[in-house]
Amino acid sequence: MTIDTLWYTRCPVVTAFGIAVRLGLLEQEFRGDGIQVQSLRQSLDKKTRNSHFEHTQPDSFRHGGNIPALFVRSRGADVRLLGVTWANEVQQVLTLPSSGIRTVRDLKGRRLALPRRLNDAIDFWRAALLHGYASALSTEGLSLDDVELVDIPIERSFVDDAAAAPSADGSLWNAAYMRGHAREEILALVRGQADALFAHGSVAVDTRTALGARVVVDIGSHPDRSLRINNLTPLTLTVSGGLLAQAPEVIARWLARIIEAAEWAKAHPADATTRSRPWFESGLDRASDEQGIIRSFGALVTKLHAAQALLARAGRTLDESARNVTTESAARASLAVAEAKAFAGDTAVEIANELFALAGTSATLAKWNLDRHWRNARTHSLHDPSRWKLHHIGNEYLNRVPPPNHGLL
User: Fold this and answer.
1) Which H/E stretch holds residue 62?
2) Do both 142 and 220 map to the same domain?
3) Left (φ > 0), alpha (ψ -120 to 50) or beta: where does 144 sit?
4) Is residue 327 part of a domain?
5) Residues 215, 297: one domain?
6) pLDDT tops 70 at residue 290
7) Residues forming beta bridges with residue 239, ordered by sequence position
8) Is residue 282 one of the residues assigned to a domain?
9) Cβ distance 16 to 262 under 8 Å?
10) Does the global pTM surpass 0.70?
11) Quick one: 357 and 375 in the same domain?
12) Is 125 in the same domain as 223?
């Protein structure tokens, strides 16, 4: 069997497969044989790219969600399973605070957003949401029969939003795509067409951040691991059946390099977990050298220092007021504290949110629990809303109207 190109594709999830690609191990393995290793991302042909879901590209490997692989196999496609990997992720049912939904029991009789991809042969996301809803509802003895599933028709196909790049390093879908992956369901929630939606990974984090959405349940952290099973849990590593039958030694070499990458990750945990990749157009070796990332960190650090300065100023103003308490000095102290609290609250939420944008998709993994920082910041900012603090600050500065004399300013 003559092989000139080995193709691969993978979902945007951190795995040993992805590390092997990043380190160039697969290219190194087959370079001496004159065999190219190429990502479907490098092809602009829609049929070739659709192989990520349909497994039609000969001599190809795929590491990704299990639903497409199961679907094509059930339809008779010659695709073979090489292994599975398990990584917990955020899997949440979200709703708006105004919905009145607080628990899974409250979902009974309510409307759940369910996208329908009109131009995709394999609508894996619809299947994932159906299973996610069913798992979430089952935690309280409910089923899909107890809720109303609201169809959300979507014209765009999955590969329409895929990124094209000359580099083999990377998935078909980048962070920008993932942030807009569920925009139709989110719009349905905002417009009142649905009462709740299912989201995972960075999509869940972004939705909570943008909308102040409430988490009804997170089955991604449920103690019963069987409830966590969905499209990305576990991931499947598959290969073209023809390649396995005719060149099993190629498969063995490919797997050996992935295992090597896994061992490298174990030996170099800091590099494996903290090394962010720069955007391919930058021509840089480190993400920390990208101008956009440097600027973002500079802006966030400046806001952090400004919040610290406002806090110190508020402390000094309080001390001065305590030495000579008058109506005027108390008002000055109240406004100084309000400025510090409002600015610090908004800054804390922004920094906790941008943490994910700067650190990348792997930062959303449930095991890191980084979303707790956003949740804590948002919780503290809601008790006495900053919008009213800013109103009183502005009203005093512009119209010389003293602030109210109560403890929530």
Assistant:
1) strand 60-64
2) yes
3) alpha
4) yes
5) no
6) yes
7) 61, 80
8) no
9) yes
10) no
11) yes
12) yes
For 208-252, write each residue's pLDDT tens digit.
888 889 999 999 999 999 999 999 999 999 999 999 999 999 999
Total count of domains within the chain: 3
Specify whether the CB–CB gap between 240 and 81 falls below 8 A. Answer: no
CATH number of the domain bearing residue 33: 3.40.190.10
pLDDT band at 338 (very low <50, low <70, confident <90, very high): very high
Can you name the residues that pair with 93 across neighbouring β-strands? 198, 217
- Residues 13, 107, single domain; the answer is no
Distance CA 205, CA 366 (A): 11
Asked, for residue 407, whether it belongs to a domain, the answer is: no
Using alpha carbons, select from 221, 177, 227, 222 the residue that is nearest to residue 203: 177
Q: Is 260 exposed, middle or buried (0-12, 13-18, 19+ CB in 10 A)?
A: middle
Bridge partners (DSSP) of residue 84 are 236
- The DSSP secondary-structure symbol of 220 reads G
Residue 281 resides in a domain: no
Whether the predicted pLDDT of 164 surpasses 60: no
Q: Mark residue 157 as left, alpha or beta (left: phi above 0; alpha: psi -120 to 50; beta: remaining).
A: beta
Structural domain including 332 reads 287-399
| Whether pLDDT at 183 is above 90 | no
* CA-to-CA separations, 118 to 115, 156, 177, in angstroms, rounded: 9, 8, 19
Residues 409 and 407: their CA atoms lie apart, in Å, by: 6
Name the more confident of 174 and 404. 404
Q: Clarify whether residues 367 and 300 are in a common domain.
A: yes
d(CA 179, CA 79): 31
